[in-house]
Amino acid sequence: MRMKDVTDPRFTRLSAVVSAALIFLSTLFIGTSFASSPVTTHDLTLPGASGVQLDSTIFIPSVTPAPAILLAHGFGGDKSSVAAQARELAQAGYVVLTWTARGFGKSTGEISMDSPSGEVADASKLIDYLAHQKEVIVQSSRDPLVGVAGSSYGGALALLAAGYDKRVDAIAANITWNNLERVLFPQNVIGSTATGPYKKFWAGTFFSIATLPNSLAGECGTFTKEWCNAFKSAVATGASTASQSKLLNASSPSSIAEKITAPTLLMQGESDSLFPLSESTATADAIRVAHPKTPLAMIWHGGGHDGGLDETKRLNQATLDWFNTYLKKQAVSIPAFQVTNTNGSISLIDSSVIPKFLQADRFPNQSGSRQIPITTPFTALVAPIGGIPAAISSLPGVGSAATALSIAGGSAAFLPGQSGFLESDPLTTPVSIVGASKVSVKISSSVKDATLFFSLVVRTPSGQTKLPNGIVAPVHVTGLSGAGSIFTISLPSVVVDASIGDKLAVAISTTDQGYTLPQDGRLYSVSIASPLTIPLLDFKSSASKSAQFVWPVSTVVVILLAALFAYIRRARHSGKPQVESNALVSVTNLSKVYKDGYQAVTDLSFEVERGQVLGLLGPNGAGKTTTLRMMMGLIFPTEGEIAIEGKPIYPGSPTLANLGSFVEGSGFLPHLSGRENLELYWKSIGREEDPYIEEAIAITDLGSALDKKVRSYSQGMRQRLAIAQAMLGMPDLLVLDEPTNGLDPQQIKAMRGVLKDYAKTGRTVIVSSHLLAEVEQTCSHVVLMHRGKLIAFGPMKKILKRKGKVAANLEEIFIELVGDELTIGLNDTLQKKTNSLLNQIIQKGKGN
Amino acid sequence: MYNARKTLPYRIEMYRQLKRKRTLFAYVFVMSLPIIVALAVKFGTSGNSTGPTRFGSGTADLIGLATKGALNFTSTMFYFATPFLLVAVISIFNGDTVASEANWSTLRYLLASPVPRSRLLFQKLKVSLTLSAFAIVILVGTSWVVGEIAFGNAPLLTPLGVTMAPHMAIPRLLIVAGYLAINLLSVAGLAFYLSVATDVPLGAVGGAIGIMILSNILDAITGLGTLRNWLPTHYSFSWFDAFSATIDWTQMIRGASYAVMLFGILISLAVLRFGKKDVTS
User: Fold this and answer.
1) Which of A495, A685, A690, A715 to mutate to test the interface with B (most CBs of B within 10 A)?
2) Class of A40-192+251-360 per CATH?
3) How far apart are CA A342 and CA A738, in angstroms?
């Protein structure tokens, strides 16, 4: 047996298919779970600039030589913070070098905030190292194919490295600064060169991150002396000095942005009060103006230093796409500007934010603008002595105090008396703002200067105020005239939607906990001097327009295919030949085998002429009902066919309109009356002639019960109603299955008369019965059936005169023909009655 | 003269269905939801209790906002009715329609009269879809009226923090109702197919409801990942996108397309199956 199995050709074929499938599945499995290729890592200590030792790790992909990526970590981290991303990039086929920046972790040296002679010089040394590695593709001597990527502290390093070292071939910088002085002393008066209020909260947080773990080294930790002093002076004065300014500028990409020619991907977080969105815009502008042909893309995502939406996975993919495009020259389509709208939707399952991704082919500041009139003329504000209490717009590293989604309750961002709103009228069209808005205001102060915090907010008709991501634009102006002076303010870059009925408002606050505030009490008034200018940019949903059509188009295609399939596979009836016969009904070689294999009818043939009353006779299970159902087009013959007036019968064939039927009990809507049932049936069958409804009603003999619900009818009443329904419209052929079941003797007698009269009009009646005596009295012709086969067929008289002798009744003939096969004792009257009773019970069961 | 195009006219079939108690009960069932919820909030204790997702708590979710006027009440009723109530009612209308005729034995007399088989299905489908659409209309209408009486008029607040004045909110609610009507076509198609496949009305109705509940359960299993995108109920709440300031149609287009696709396939299968079926009921 085993031998046979192996040599069996089916077996060989099966095993081939199975092994092919297994091989396919295993490749899939290896492909996904062991993610492409193994990555080897080596820990090294590499020389940085000025003798600094950098604790590094190099990740080598399986296929070398490959392009290299320097992956820098964020402030306070070390090389292990970026190990996961490094491994991902290495698996995608890059040599990745990570290192701990000087002054952190195991690296030596002091923190100099990405200064050109410090961290940036280190990066150049690392590029030197890569140039000598055989695993790295080298373009010319000492010039490897290399990209630089990083977030925050590392992002600024990427930008600065690209500005100082021409060997950098592509960069990806996330949530980083353009100008450190503007970040720490933000000033949002357009055209002003003065610094704004000191961002003490964030600066303090930053400083402590680096100093606390190294507190043994003194109050400055591992910061350089210069940076430590600069911090101390800023805290003391709340202002920037000339030497600080020089220091901050040297560490700012703004100082060298015009030198960047490497393809640059800028990513910035919407939830970032430290390095707001405007920092990325400033970098992008500088690069674009200096070298318009430098490939440049910008992503505003939902994250940032305040937390927000975690989009790490998407941003890592974008970084990889960027390097694939510019280091590996793979064609990946990257939109110029992508924005995450965190206000898109909310999951109904866990209330989490479902972001929407938008894209545009231009940057926000390249776009058009729209003017929205501000109708509140002015607002008066108080600045408290000592700057306390102060508004809380955001909590560094935690998130905005007033999230875009908060509806209930007052906002800590706007304290009464210390804040005011210059509002527009309710909007008449929805507005989506992406980028920075502008407005001109006249500021007057009880002293000569003013420190104010501007923001763009949305106020809803129900009185809620939405401050997008808690971002404010600080303003510090001096030399105010007594009547006040006009300034144009750049409001925070935000991503926010306002709907119809909402008001846009310029919110002004005199305090903010995150900043150094004037210590004297003041009174300010701010009045509006221009309409609000908001950016207008055409966005598409990140899914391209064509993708929107994919679903509807595929739906149409699928439906057409389904309809076509149904059309092709449908039961076909046309094209069947006419049957050559003068008979009204001709049954030819009819057979029916049910799905369960039961052969109900076998090779049945007979004909029915007009004016005949034909009795279809046989015991239960003889195939009478099956034959009649085939005649009604309800079930499909397995072989042979039935034709009426020479036309073959199939479901819905028009010939059936001339056939009235009653098969296997009545069928009525139980919730309607007998009369309604008859009327509705007539209206449902698509015939226009006279229904002879009164004649039909007379046959039912229902009287007043006709208007009662069919539900309440007895078996006999339903039976009569059903026969009346079959006679509606006086069809040429009337087919009745066991019509006398459940009728009392008088009604049976009346029914005989009805059927005979019906035939006298030239119409034809086919009656089936298992009661042979019954048929004898009604029918002119007889078809005798037994176990699906025809036993005898002919005029009643002829059948009775069989074999030369006149039989007393059909039963004798039947027994003679069937012989011992017949199981029912037909002569036994008692048996007959039991049988009839049984049948009634069955019918009743079906009727209900 | 027999004319196949005049068999089982729409208004006759509609009359046959409207005369049924089942139809009336289904509509009463739909109407009872907003009425019971409104009574519960008005006279129950939950209206004054604190904590999130309580009626009238004013929290930023659909339930908390329910008592802030008729518009909010209506949107909350959509939220309540989407996963089960409308599925049940639409399953009843579409699952019962053919199977009950088979059950009453009226099917064979209609077919033998003869109503062509595909015509019978399409006429019945037209009527059951009309009844289904009307159930959604009744839900919106009752919710609105009940909300207006119980909670008065107020702008629509959405959990996304968008406030919409009535002239803007009403079209949005209509979009939601329209989307629901299209999305529920998948339920209608499934129930109708089952109605053709079985002679037991309860089997067809229960089967359709059961499959939809199963689909909802599977949809909640995050481990199934993107496979869930192919569940018929996956997009049933996509109408939620209509409540943001600028509507992102992506999910609704997908959901509507997928529902129409399923509907088309299931109806084709139903027609095919019915056309070849031996009617033995």
Assistant:
1) A685
2) alpha beta
3) 73
